[in-house]
Every structure is written in C-alpha cells, then in structure tokens.
Amino acid sequence: MLFVYIFLLLTMSRVGLGSLQDKQTDFGLKVFSLLAKDSMNKSLAFSPYGVSSLLAMAQLGADGSTRRALTTAMGFSLQERGMLRQQRLLQSDLSREEGLEIASGVMVERKMSLEKGYRRVMSKAFQTHPHQVDFTKPDQAVSIINAWVSDHTAGAIPEFLPFGSLTDETRLVLLNALHFQGLWKIPFDPRLTQERMFHCANGSAVPVHMMRLTNQFNYGEFVTADGVDYDVIEIPYEGDSLSMLLVSPFEPEVPLSVLSAELSSQKIQQWRAELRNVKRQLAFPRFTLNSEVNLKTVLINMGLGDMFNLAAADFTRITSDERLCVSKIFQRVKIEVNEQGTKGAAATAAIMFSRMAVEEITLDRPFLFLIQHKQTGAVLFMGQYNQPQQQ
Predict the structure, then answer these.
(1) Where are the domains of the chain?
(2) 20 to 30 A from 368, CA-CA: which of 2, 20, 136, 159?
(3) What is 20-182+289-335's CATH number?
(4) Where in the sequence is the signal peptide annotated (predicted)?
(5) pLDDT tens digits for 94-136?
C-alpha cells in the first residue's frame, strides 16, 4: 500500500473515558485542524491532550468574561460540579499506562501569592503544586523550567524555552509535559525496510525508508461528507491499550486538511466501531518529526483574544496581587517512529505576565511629553523625543 499522505493520531484504544475526555479531545482536534490549514504542505506533530490540559489549567484561574470565553471555546468547564474529579481520574487513568508519563506544572513568581482556591483545585484536578521561581533572573528561570520539562520528557525536549523568552515581568508559567515510549505489538522486520519514493503534498517525490509488515490489521474504508474516500488502519502497541491510527485519502491530490477538518471524538469512535480485522500488507515511512507551534493566533481566532489583553483578561482566581494576562502559548513536539515502535514527547506552556508589577519605568525608546496645568487642563508645552539633539 502506497501512502501518498499520512496523518498520524495516537489515541487511547478504550472508548468512552467520559464526556470530559471527549470534549477535551474535540477541542485539541479543532486546534490541530486550524494549525494544519497554515501548514498545508508541511509535516506537523501536535499534542491535543497537551493543549487541552494546559488551557484547562488556565480556565481554573479565570473569571468573568475570560472564563466564559474559555468555556465556550473549549466546550467544557472544569469549574462545574464534579469536573475536577473527572479530570483527576482521566489523568490518573492515562498515567497508569506503561510507557506513558504525564505531568502538569505551575511555576510562580516567588513574591506573588496565589489564591488558596487555585492551589486547591490545581492539586485536586492535576495533582500539582506551585514551584516558586525568581523571574527577576529570567535566564535562571528558563533553566529551571527547561530542567523540569527535560525530566518529564525523558530528556527528549531538553531546551524547551529559549533564553530571552521570559522577562522580569513574567509572573506565572503553566506547563504540561507528555512522554510516550511504546513498542509495536508486532514489530516491523528491519530487513524488509526498503527505500521507496514518497509523494509529498507539494507534488514532489522524495526517497524514504519504507517499513513493511504483512499481518492482520483493524482496517476500514470511509467517505467524508463531501464524498472524499479514505481509509483507516490501526497499528496496536504492546498491551493493546494504545494504538496508532493511520488515515490516508485514496486520491493523492486530496489535501489532508479535508480529513483533519472532520476530526472529532465521535468520528474516531465511529472508526473504531466499524474497523474490521483483515489481512493487509502495510508499508509506511520510518520518520522523525520535530514541531514547534505558536498557538496564540489560532486561539485568538477561536475567540480567546481577551486572555492575551492585559486590560481585558481576568485571572483573579489565580491571584489578586496584580492583573495577569497570557503573553505566549506554544508547544514543542518530537515524534520518532521506527520498526520497533514509537517515541513521543510534547511540552506545552502558557506564559503569564503583569506590567502593573514593574517598579521601574525606563523610557529608553521614543516618547511624547506634555506639560499641563492640572486645574484648568491647559497644555503649556508638549513635544516628541526621538533622539538627542546636537548641542
């Protein structure tokens, strides 16, 4: 079987872990679909669980219009009755899987006090407690966070944050880390791996190392609402609780965005219900993907612009010390697939800052000035300063 396009989705084999997981999955898939539109001819690795978990952590600290916007965009609220327990059970269920590690982290400025309620819900839902960090030493803070990510991704993502990504205005960094290492239930024989041409989305063809396996697979053929034919084949990992689904359109000219736009938890459940065990010869590339995505634009397009606006964001459930907003949300993912199995690591971060906490204002850039009589409002002098004048 020649795969002209390959879409990869790592998913739990068990169906129906609950409505919360379905909604988190739907949100993550929607984010991926929007990212994929901007990467039409590029390979992309992404963690839907990572971004859903991270924004759920932010949602627990949100109030007012920010909370409502997050609830609307994500399709669920962890602030509703019983949802903290569901989140804890979901994370515990995943963490029990052999070869799978999930961690959540909160790095907080050491001089800022967190609301007791936020500490409580983070502990209850995500089994995490805040780590105090001195953000007045940004490079040191970057090193601390990178060490945390490296520890929780088995060293797969050693330099998550670049130096310069944090400043002394940073107040809080929310983190999610995911590491997976799984062996195929039936490994591919390396002696059967051959160099073959892979037909890329941009129309070019490049040689790849194509792995081959003839075996019984769960397989199905499906049609999108627009009449695009595609097939789904499942490759199980040892233990059968995790598997990889390979989804590929029949026609080589069909872009993967046509398929990713239809992705949902319900669609995946439909696939699983209709797959049939048949004998197939599978050939697909051995590959490694490294992706880094900035999620800010996508999230703004999903209606979450206010949380990036210091004047509009409401994270008063996190702290009442000062006003917070999100400055960046990004994710790094590394996936390696070979004859033995799969290694995957993902790290997602939301960086929050506050300008109200700055004790010193340095006008080391052009500025306007006005001299005004306060009682009458008369402006006596004004000007703009762009550069020093020669004396």
Answers:
(1) 20-182+289-335, 190-287+346-385
(2) 136
(3) 3.30.497.10
(4) 1-18
(5) 888 888 888 999 999 998 999 999 999 999 999 999 999 999 9
